[in-house]
Amino acid sequence: MSVSQTLAGPAEFELEAKRSRFLARAAPTDSPDAALAWLQSVSDPQATHNCWAYRIGAEYRSSDDGEPGGSAGRPILAAIEGQGLDQVVVVVTRWYGGTNLGVGGLIRAYGGAAAECLRTAPRRELVPWCEAELACGFELANAVHGLLAEFGGQKLDESFATSGLRLRVRLPDYTIDSLAGRLRDISRGTASLQRIETPAP
């Protein structure tokens, strides 16, 4: 299974080019609104430029913040894509040092600062999750809770019926078939685990 990666936490990297200072900061994010809120919180209004980009699944956006078109935001986005990361936002803040870098120099500075920031940042896997409904007899309650913990699942809701226990659970998507098999084994086919399909947006 191919698993995407994001950052494990915030990271930063600084470089200097012809006396201009470039500070790259990156963070994990899970929505465009969260990305923009983070950008607003870390951008320096006293700096010359705060250029940024984010990628969240199929959604992406970038800004040159007054630099020549394509010289800042796109190289930052290219750095995110080049590192194979998802759910990441990066801002590179520039304090002008008095010497123009030219478009090529800007691309190298913005893209280079972002790429090095991301290259050295700690990462974690982005595991897709799913929800499922689990039903079993009362006598299996302890064993089922143990299995759920073993497979990294979380109990969202629990109810009781005359036939036994019903659980709504959240678990890593790739574990659902294995967990269903283990449940069949311990219950001799009486327990069930069914994925809850979420409607398409």
TrEMBL record:
Family: Belongs to the IMPACT family.
Lineage, uppermost ranks: Bacteria, Pseudomonadati, Pseudomonadota, Gammaproteobacteria, Lysobacterales
GO cellular component, one term: cytoplasm
Domain of life per record: Bacteria
Signal sequence residues: none
SUPFAM superfamilies reported in the protein's UniProt record: EF-G C-terminal domain-like, Ribosomal protein S5 domain 2-like
InterPro entries: EFG_III/V (IPR035647), Impact (IPR023582), Impact_N (IPR001498), Impact_N_sf (IPR036956), Ribosomal_Su5_D2-typ_SF (IPR020568), UPF0029_Impact_CS (IPR020569)
GO BP: regulation of translational initiation
PANTHER family in UniProt: IMPACT FAMILY MEMBER YIGZ, IMPACT-RELATED
Protein name, UniProt field: Impact N-terminal domain-containing protein
Residue intervals of the Impact N-terminal domain: 18-118
GO-annotated molecular function: anion binding; guanyl ribonucleotide binding; ribonucleoside triphosphate phosphatase activity
